[in-house]
Design brief:
41% of the residues lie in helices and 21% in strands. The protein has 406 residues and is of the alpha/beta class. It has 2 domains: 253 residues, tm_1862 like domain (pyruvate-formate lyase- activating enzyme); 73 residues, Orthogonal Bundle (Arc Repressor Mutant, subunit A), CATH 1.10.10. It has a 9-stranded mixed β-sheet, with helices on both faces. Strands 12-13-14 form a 3-stranded antiparallel β-sheet, with no helix packed on it. A 3-stranded antiparallel β-sheet has the order 15-17-16. Helix 6 links the parallel strand 7 and strand 8. Helix 1 packs across helix 10 and helix 6 packs parallel to helix 8. The longest helix has 18 residues. The radius of gyration is 21 Å and the shape is globular.
């Protein structure tokens, strides 16, 4: 490991562990329950993919590593040790790199947490979602509110001093008072970071089916807006900085990995279904874990035989054109409360934001959804509630890069 070198380009690594104890009804991530039998083959394949990409990443310094899923905290300490060792052996990792691991409260034990901390994982993102047992049941979570609090306490005892807690508000038939109770209990735990997302009904999920069939009502957008505005005010009062639409942090505790996504900087995704933006290309691996294992192993064998290989695990990619890159930079940047620096945008793309997005900017300055703060274009407080109206007018014809993880 080396000290940070600002003269070298930074790289973020995302490591996808797709296995879960149970699949939550609202989840549309590439995750699977009942495939535990694949774990003994999956970890070596992930390590091999890290080795395959290492030569291309040689000029970069890795400053953030993020284990996402799925449920990475289900991984054994032996598997996590193999993966972290491969990262450190194959890549130049900054000595103060941020190492985040997503975890579910139901599987966390003090022994396992202490082992993860000893491996150098220094940030946990715990998927609490609610601190009401009936709401957790509705969300198909396997833990209770009490178990979630115990998991946070165990993480502290294991030496973790950088915790994110994930929550979902705007639940179906959720009065604002219930959300307020959850957030107040969360604040009593004093996490360094909070991610608070409005419930979204994603196509292909069990929740989408239930809503489409009339078994459940859709979330009430007016209630969601009230809860979001209260959250924004309450967390500001508690000393948390609102730095991204759904994310708040104590000073200096922003998620460095997610900032890579929002700044449209390079990241390399390793694992089944992982997405990358690397060397000017966007691409993604095959989703199915068994197929991923087969293709990584075939690529590894090909390289061993001839010294080079085509990355067979990649299912597709593209070279985004300039218009798409500019739109992505605007949309991802506007998710940040600081907004988009007009001077930095022009230095990056050679044209001003006004010359490219002038009509959309003027329209939403007029609607009160955008504002200028010196050099920066940013969403207003009202614009934070209606951000998609702005994004649609900026985006040429495609969605921005894949969703970040907390």
């Amino acid at each position: 490991m080396t000290a940070p070198d600002t003269s070298r380009p930074a790289l973020a690594l995302y490591l996808h562990i797709p296995f879960c104890t149970a699949k939550c009804g609202y989840c549309d991530f590439n995750s699977y329950a009942g495939l535990e039998h694949l774990v003994p083959e999956y970890t070596p394949a992930l390590v091999r993919e890290l080795e395959l990409w290492a030569p291309a990443a040689r000029r970069f310094e890795v400053r953030t590593v993020f284990f996402g899923g799925g449920t990475p905290s289900l991984s054994s300490l032996a598997d996590l040790e193999a993966i972290t060792r491969a990262v450190r052996n194959q890549y130049d990792v900054a000595h103060d790199a941020e190492w985040t691991l997503e975890a579910n409260p139901g599987e966390l034990t003090l022994e396992h947490l202490a082992g993860m901390r000893a491996l150098g994982i220094n940030r946990l993102s715990i998927g609490v979602q609610s601190l009401h047992d009936d709401e957790l049941k509705m969300l198909d979570r396997i833990h209770t509110a009490e178990r979630a609090i115990e998991a946070v306490e165990a993480a502290r005892a294991a030496g973790f001093d950088n915790l994110n807690l994930d929550f979902i508000f705007g639940l179906i038939d959720q009065p604002i008072g219930r959300w307020q109770e959850t957030l107040e209990r969360a604040l009593a735990l004093r996490p360094e970071h909070l991610s608070c997302y409005a419930l979204t009904v994603e196509p292909g999920t069990a929740l989408y089916y239930q809503v489409a069939k009339g078994m459940l009502p859709e979330p009430d957008p007016d209630v969601v807006a009230d809860q979001y505005e209260w959250t924004r005010d309450r967390l500001a009062l508690a000393g948390y900085r609102h730095y991204e639409l759904s994310n708040w942090a104590l000073p200096g505790r922003e998620c460095l990995h997610n900032l890579v996504y929002w700044h449209a900087d390079p990241y390399l995704g390793i694992g089944a279904g992982a997405h990358s933006f690397f060397a000017g290309q966007r691409f993604a691996n095959v989703d199915a874990p068994n197929r991923y294992v087969e293709l990584v192993n075939a690529t590894h064998e090909e390289r061993e035989g001839v010294g080079s290989a085509t990355m067979q695990q990649i299912k597709g990619g593209e070279s985004p054109d300039e218009a798409t890159m500019r739109a992505d930079a605007m949309i991802l940047g506007l998710r940040l409360m600081e907004g988009v620096s007009a001077s930095a945008f022009e230095a990056r793309f050679g044209d001003s934001v006004q010359s490219i997005f002038g009509p959309a900017i003027q329209r939403h300055l007029g609607t009160g959804l955008l504002e200028w703060a010196r050099d920066r274009l940013r969403l207003t407080t009202r614009g934070q509630l209606l951000s998609n109206e702005v994004f649609i007018d900026i985006l040429p014809d495609a969605a921005p890069t894949e969703a970040y993880r907390a």
